[in-house]
């Protein structure tokens, strides 16, 4: 396996976000090289998606989480540029509706998990139920504490049903967030993203970091790993995520190909039989 540009969280490890620099980038990767690399990886991702769609054996679920301005939308736009929209679903999870609140917290999530063959993206996810909900005491601690276990069981169910799960935490620094929020105020073309709520949430930065540390520590498993993405440099973030997606999907490539070939051969045998029958019938009719 080639070099990893981000950090995969080991199962049952205790994550301290201070140990991971949001500024990190591999010394050997310059911006122009990374952008070129992203083009290649995007193309490969498109080809792998096509194979996955045809094989109908797996689906892929990419979960994006991160503080406001961490780049969830930008990642979707840049990393999935060559993915066929026909085989892709993107769902953004906002504050739950009254109806959603009247169900268990995974009810609204389960409806949007990708079916076999589909590349699904979650922009925020069920993790909000142990992040914003925890930080703002939206439910009692006793309730959110149990959710980590429910999340692990839920993701195991998805994985057992053929879903390849990758979870990316876009790790930015508090200074970088301030820079990005200010840019929205200063640059008219970014002003549509302005949201006073973002400045208010920023006051809870440390609580969020702690909540993220717990989610990353308790919910990274072999079948649904968390990746910490150094995300202060957008170009580096995009390349690192694209590379991880491609490497993960490549592990299934041979299996998908083999299945497709076997399916093709089966169809060919059936076709030959039909041709033989048709030519026999036309002979006896003569
Ligand atoms: P944005 O991603 O900027 O469109 O914002 C969506 C907002 O919805 C964020 O402030 C999230 O914290 C909030 N949100 C998402 N899921 C939940 C949830 N389960 N409970 C409460 N708020 C949520
Ligand atoms: Mg926002």
TrEMBL record:
Residues 24-58 form a coiled coil. GO terms for molecular function: polyphosphate kinase activity. InterPro entries: P-loop_NTPase (IPR027417), Polyphosphate_phosphotransfera (IPR016898), PPK2-rel_1 (IPR022300), PPK2-related (IPR022488). The keyword Coiled coil applies. Residues 30-253 form the Polyphosphate kinase-2-related domain. Keywords: Coiled coil, Kinase, Transferase. One of its GO terms (biological process) is polyphosphate metabolic process. Pfam families: PPK2. This is Polyphosphate kinase-2-related domain-containing protein. It comes from Ktedonospora formicarum.
